[in-house]
Design brief:
- The chain is mostly helical.
- The chain has four helices and no strands.
- α1 (about 15-30) crosses α3 (about 70-95).
- The protein is globular and about 60 Å long.
- The structure holds 2'-deoxycytidine-5'-triphosphate.
- 2'-deoxycytidine-5'-triphosphate binds near residues 32, 35, 83 and 86.
């Protein structure tokens, strides 16, 4: 049975696998798997990136942590970031990519490509 209406306030160490399972159950329960093709999910992802961008649009530079934003604005950011993340996770899934492993591998590759320059901190 689906339990997506249960919204715990704070869950420690949410795993990507848990999120993927919830997303699969969400789509399955609604018969929406047929719509979740790679192309559709990519377009949905880009749409949500646009919605996230709209929140920042015309605000000028914004301080880290968004200290001057209202709680409504912060909640909006939280929701749009989540939409982006959840569509990205689903897109990776239908592309057969394990996003956690792929991201870890990419971080290692990035570190090899951009070695630390000790002089930077002297
Ligand atoms: N076919 C769908 C439709 C929605 N969702 C999920 C993923 C997103 O987390 C969220 C997106 O829902 P909406 O399209 O309603 O977008 P918003 O929540 O941003 O609403 P709005 O565009 O009205 O601000 O729902 C999904 O997985 N598959």
């Amino acid at each position: 049975m689906e339990n997506s209406h249960v919204c715990p306030k704070k869950v420690k160490d949410v795993s990507l696998q848990e999120l993927r399972d919830s997303l699969q159950e969400f789509a399955r329960a609604r018969g929406w798997e047929q719509y979740h093709s790679p192309r559709n999910l990519l377009l949905a992802l880009v749409g949500e990136v646009g919605e996230l961008s709209e929140i920042f649009q015309w605000k000028g530079e914004v301080a880290k942590g968004l200290p001057d934003w209202t709680s409504d604005e912060k909640q909006h950011v939280e929701e749009e970031l989540s939409d982006v993340f959840l569509y990205l996770l689903q897109l990776a899934d239908v592309c057969g990519v394990d996003l956690g492993q792929a991201a870890l591998t990419k971080i290692i590759k990035n570190a090899q490509k951009y070695p630390v320059n000790p002089a930077t901190f002297n």
